[in-house]
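Quick one: sequence plus zinc ion SMILES, need C-alpha coordinates.
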Amino acid sequence: MTTMRKSVVLLSGGLDSLLGLWLAKQQGQVVLAVLANYGQRAFKKECSAAQHIADWAEVPLQIIALPWLSQWLPVGMVADNESPKQAATADVWVPNRNGVLLNVAAAAAEAMGASHVVFGANLDEAAGFSDNTQQFVDDTNAALQLSTQTGVQVWAPVAGMTKADMVALALENNLPLQHIWSCYNAGAQHCGVCLSCQHLKQALRGHNSAAILFEK
Ligand SMILES: [Zn+2]
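Reply:
Sure thing.
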Protein backbone atom coordinates (compact mmCIF):
# COMPACT_ATOMS: atom_id res chain seq x y z
CA MET A 1 0.00 0.00 0.00
CA THR A 2 2.79 2.36 0.88
CA THR A 3 5.55 0.75 -1.15
CA MET A 4 8.69 2.83 -1.27
CA ARG A 5 7.22 6.20 -0.61
CA LYS A 6 9.77 8.93 -1.11
CA SER A 7 9.37 11.61 1.50
CA VAL A 8 10.61 14.78 3.14
CA VAL A 9 10.20 14.72 6.92
CA LEU A 10 9.35 17.74 9.03
CA LEU A 11 11.60 17.19 12.03
CA SER A 12 11.29 19.18 15.25
CA GLY A 13 13.52 16.98 17.37
CA GLY A 14 10.54 15.86 19.47
CA LEU A 15 8.80 12.57 20.06
CA ASP A 16 6.18 12.92 17.31
CA SER A 17 8.56 13.64 14.49
CA LEU A 18 11.03 10.98 15.66
CA LEU A 19 8.28 8.38 15.30
CA GLY A 20 7.15 9.88 11.99
CA LEU A 21 10.67 9.67 10.61
CA TRP A 22 11.14 6.12 11.80
CA LEU A 23 7.83 4.96 10.30
CA ALA A 24 8.55 6.77 7.05
CA LYS A 25 11.87 4.94 6.83
CA GLN A 26 10.12 1.63 7.44
CA GLN A 27 7.88 2.28 4.47
CA GLY A 28 10.10 3.97 2.01
CA GLN A 29 12.91 6.41 1.42
CA VAL A 30 13.41 9.65 3.31
CA VAL A 31 15.33 12.06 1.10
CA LEU A 32 15.51 14.96 3.54
CA ALA A 33 14.64 16.01 7.06
CA VAL A 34 13.78 19.66 7.55
CA LEU A 35 13.99 21.67 10.77
CA ALA A 36 12.60 25.21 10.78
CA ASN A 37 14.24 28.08 12.61
CA TYR A 38 11.56 30.71 13.20
CA GLY A 39 13.14 32.25 16.28
CA GLN A 40 11.66 29.80 18.77
CA ARG A 41 13.42 29.85 22.13
CA ALA A 42 14.23 26.14 21.99
CA PHE A 43 15.75 26.23 18.50
CA LYS A 44 19.31 25.34 19.54
CA LYS A 45 18.05 22.43 21.62
CA GLU A 46 15.75 21.29 18.79
CA CYS A 47 18.64 21.60 16.36
CA SER A 48 20.90 19.40 18.45
CA ALA A 49 18.10 16.84 18.93
CA ALA A 50 17.19 16.87 15.24
CA GLN A 51 20.83 16.39 14.25
CA HIS A 52 21.19 13.40 16.57
CA ILE A 53 17.99 11.88 15.21
CA ALA A 54 18.88 12.56 11.57
CA ASP A 55 22.34 11.02 12.09
CA TRP A 56 20.76 8.00 13.76
CA ALA A 57 18.34 7.62 10.84
CA GLU A 58 21.08 8.36 8.28
CA VAL A 59 19.04 11.10 6.69
CA PRO A 60 20.38 14.53 5.66
CA LEU A 61 19.10 17.41 7.79
CA GLN A 62 18.46 20.87 6.41
CA ILE A 63 17.75 23.90 8.58
CA ILE A 64 15.25 26.23 6.95
CA ALA A 65 15.42 29.78 8.28
CA LEU A 66 12.12 31.63 8.54
CA PRO A 67 13.32 34.86 10.20
CA TRP A 68 10.24 36.82 9.14
CA LEU A 69 8.03 34.58 11.29
CA SER A 70 9.89 35.44 14.50
CA GLN A 71 8.32 38.89 14.67
CA TRP A 72 4.90 37.30 15.20
CA LEU A 73 5.78 34.77 17.89
CA PRO A 74 3.73 34.72 21.10
CA VAL A 75 5.55 35.88 24.23
CA GLY A 76 5.75 32.29 25.44
CA MET A 77 7.93 31.28 22.49
CA VAL A 78 10.22 34.28 22.21
CA ALA A 79 13.93 33.62 22.43
CA ASP A 80 14.80 35.87 25.35
CA ASN A 81 11.72 35.20 27.46
CA GLU A 82 12.91 32.82 30.13
CA SER A 83 9.69 32.23 32.06
CA PRO A 84 9.11 28.45 31.96
CA LYS A 85 5.45 28.47 32.89
CA GLN A 86 3.20 28.36 29.87
CA ALA A 87 0.25 26.07 30.21
CA ALA A 88 -2.31 27.36 27.74
CA THR A 89 -2.52 26.63 24.04
CA ALA A 90 -2.83 30.35 23.23
CA ASP A 91 0.52 31.06 24.91
CA VAL A 92 2.42 28.83 22.53
CA TRP A 93 0.43 29.26 19.32
CA VAL A 94 2.70 30.39 16.49
CA PRO A 95 0.61 32.04 13.75
CA ASN A 96 -0.10 29.50 11.01
CA ARG A 97 3.06 27.55 11.89
CA ASN A 98 2.10 24.11 10.62
CA GLY A 99 0.48 25.62 7.54
CA VAL A 100 3.73 27.43 6.76
CA LEU A 101 6.00 24.49 7.61
CA LEU A 102 4.06 21.94 5.59
CA ASN A 103 4.11 24.21 2.57
CA VAL A 104 7.85 24.84 2.95
CA ALA A 105 8.48 21.11 3.16
CA ALA A 106 6.10 20.46 0.26
CA ALA A 107 8.13 22.85 -1.88
CA ALA A 108 11.27 20.86 -1.05
CA ALA A 109 9.41 17.61 -1.74
CA GLU A 110 8.17 18.78 -5.13
CA ALA A 111 11.64 20.01 -6.10
CA MET A 112 13.29 16.77 -4.95
CA GLY A 113 10.79 14.43 -6.56
CA ALA A 114 9.38 13.23 -3.23
CA SER A 115 5.71 12.31 -3.10
CA HIS A 116 5.08 12.93 0.60
CA VAL A 117 5.75 15.27 3.49
CA VAL A 118 5.84 13.44 6.80
CA PHE A 119 4.10 15.32 9.60
CA GLY A 120 3.95 14.27 13.26
CA ALA A 121 0.28 15.11 13.87
CA ASN A 122 -1.17 12.78 16.52
CA LEU A 123 -4.22 12.34 18.72
CA ASP A 124 -2.85 14.28 21.70
CA GLU A 125 -1.89 17.31 19.65
CA ALA A 126 -5.12 17.16 17.66
CA ALA A 127 -7.07 17.54 20.89
CA GLY A 128 -5.58 20.97 21.52
CA PHE A 129 -4.42 22.28 18.17
CA SER A 130 -6.60 22.57 15.06
CA ASP A 131 -3.47 22.36 12.88
CA ASN A 132 -2.85 18.78 14.00
CA THR A 133 -6.25 17.37 13.08
CA GLN A 134 -7.12 14.96 10.28
CA GLN A 135 -9.33 17.68 8.81
CA PHE A 136 -6.30 19.96 8.56
CA VAL A 137 -4.26 17.22 6.87
CA ASP A 138 -7.06 16.45 4.42
CA ASP A 139 -7.68 20.09 3.54
CA THR A 140 -3.95 20.79 3.18
CA ASN A 141 -3.73 17.85 0.82
CA ALA A 142 -6.56 19.24 -1.29
CA ALA A 143 -4.67 22.53 -1.59
CA LEU A 144 -1.36 20.77 -2.36
CA GLN A 145 -3.02 18.96 -5.25
CA LEU A 146 -3.29 22.38 -6.84
CA SER A 147 -0.25 24.17 -5.45
CA THR A 148 2.26 21.51 -6.53
CA GLN A 149 2.53 20.05 -10.01
CA THR A 150 3.30 16.61 -8.66
CA GLY A 151 0.46 16.45 -6.13
CA VAL A 152 2.71 16.22 -3.06
CA GLN A 153 0.70 14.92 -0.11
CA VAL A 154 1.00 15.25 3.65
CA TRP A 155 1.44 11.91 5.37
CA ALA A 156 0.78 11.73 9.11
CA PRO A 157 1.86 8.19 10.05
CA VAL A 158 1.23 8.72 13.78
CA ALA A 159 -2.16 10.41 13.36
CA GLY A 160 -3.95 7.52 15.05
CA MET A 161 -1.57 7.38 18.02
CA THR A 162 -1.37 9.09 21.38
CA LYS A 163 1.98 10.14 22.81
CA ALA A 164 1.75 7.15 25.17
CA ASP A 165 1.37 4.87 22.13
CA MET A 166 4.42 6.49 20.56
CA VAL A 167 6.52 6.12 23.70
CA ALA A 168 5.61 2.43 23.86
CA LEU A 169 6.48 1.93 20.19
CA ALA A 170 9.73 3.87 20.59
CA LEU A 171 10.82 1.77 23.57
CA GLU A 172 9.86 -1.47 21.85
CA ASN A 173 12.05 -0.58 18.91
CA ASN A 174 14.95 1.08 20.72
CA LEU A 175 14.41 4.48 19.16
CA PRO A 176 16.75 7.15 20.61
CA LEU A 177 14.32 8.77 23.04
CA GLN A 178 17.26 10.09 25.03
CA HIS A 179 18.02 12.52 22.20
CA ILE A 180 14.60 14.10 21.71
CA TRP A 181 13.83 17.69 22.67
CA SER A 182 10.14 18.49 23.19
CA CYS A 183 10.37 21.38 25.66
CA TYR A 184 9.42 24.94 24.66
CA ASN A 185 12.28 26.16 26.84
CA ALA A 186 16.02 25.85 26.32
CA GLY A 187 17.37 24.71 29.67
CA ALA A 188 19.93 22.00 30.29
CA GLN A 189 17.07 19.50 30.51
CA HIS A 190 13.34 19.44 29.79
CA CYS A 191 11.71 22.02 32.11
CA GLY A 192 8.90 19.65 33.05
CA VAL A 193 6.30 22.43 33.40
CA CYS A 194 5.59 23.81 29.90
CA LEU A 195 2.59 22.45 27.98
CA SER A 196 4.75 20.23 25.80
CA CYS A 197 6.64 18.81 28.80
CA GLN A 198 3.37 18.11 30.57
CA HIS A 199 2.18 16.04 27.62
CA LEU A 200 5.48 14.20 27.34
CA LYS A 201 5.71 13.50 31.06
CA GLN A 202 2.25 12.02 30.99
CA ALA A 203 3.19 9.76 28.08
CA LEU A 204 6.40 8.65 29.81
CA ARG A 205 4.70 7.90 33.10
CA GLY A 206 5.57 4.43 34.29
CA HIS A 207 8.57 4.13 31.99
CA ASN A 208 12.15 4.33 33.21
CA SER A 209 13.05 6.54 30.28
CA ALA A 210 11.21 9.43 31.96
CA ALA A 211 14.33 9.78 34.09
CA ILE A 212 16.54 10.35 31.05
CA LEU A 213 14.64 13.45 30.06
CA PHE A 214 13.34 14.93 33.28
CA GLU A 215 15.74 14.19 36.12
CA LYS A 216 18.80 16.23 36.86
ZN1 LIG B 1 9.25 22.22 28.99
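Residues 183-185, 190-191, 194, 196-197 surround zinc ion (CB under 6 Å). The chain has a mean pLDDT of 91.
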